[in-house]
Amino acid sequence: MLDEQGAQNYWGKQVEKGGMEPCHYLNKWQDKYAFEIRTSVFRRSDFRGLKKIVDIGCGVGDYTAKMFKLIDSDAHIVGFDFPFNIEIARKKHRDLKNIVFKEGSVPDENIESDIKSADAVIMTTVYTHLTPDSREILLGYFEKMKSGAKMFILEYFPEVVPEFQKNQAHKIVESSKEVQVRFINHGLQVLEVRPVNYIDSFLFFHWGKNWFVYFITKWLDNFVRVFKYYRSKYKLIIFTR
Ligand SMILES: C[S@@+](CC[C@H](N)C(=O)[O-])C[C@H]1O[C@@H](n2cnc3c(N)ncnc32)[C@H](O)[C@@H]1O
């Protein structure tokens, strides 16, 4: 696994490759599908009554901006990421006055202090990219969250980590059970495990990454959605402090 400097360099290179869209797959159609499916798992009721939400590893702010549509009108979101992503996020979402983008990566005392006063923390596809040390430090920050505050983590959390996901430089995948036990050991309780019905990579991988596969995948997704498949590899796990 990369160390903290290595991780920063890795994400910096993604910006060089991806311009204003540096995260995820760097393919327009697969990214569009991922964005739509992943963000559709959040509901307005998840954020009702929450005034301050902290988005850790907000990237260029696209998911943050989507969450912004679900929060109360008097609420605000603070998004943290490396400076090169924050620079883009500020440009892309300058109209959204209730989002503040701040430079900062775990470990960081500003992140710690914003987490302490937050009503909720969000992390979308960030946790697996944190070094083991950063994970432990972040979990320590969560121990200091307000009682009753929520923690939303959307991630690739399979039941069993497949071989091909092991020994990668830029991520360490944990199973759904592993992550729940870890968070519980740091004083959080599981409120809900919400599966993300997600069939993205199969056809994109076999048939190519193009608009046709995007539409076929979206169409097939309507059928998959009828069933809540709790073994889905992507999950939104909602914890409370
Ligand atoms: C897959 S992207 C997800 C970005 C965004 N949350 C989204 O869903 O589009 C992972 C993000 O984690 C950020 N990241 C990696 N290590 C981090 C750290 N130690 N602290 C904060 N963010 C980090 C990266 O810069 C990158 O923006």
UniProtKB/TrEMBL annotation:
InterPro entries: Methyltranfer_dom, SAM-dependent_MTases_sf. Pfam families: Methyltransf_31. It comes from the Bacteria. This is Methyltransferase domain-containing protein. Residues 51-178 form the Methyltransferase domain. CDD domains: AdoMet_MTases (cd02440).
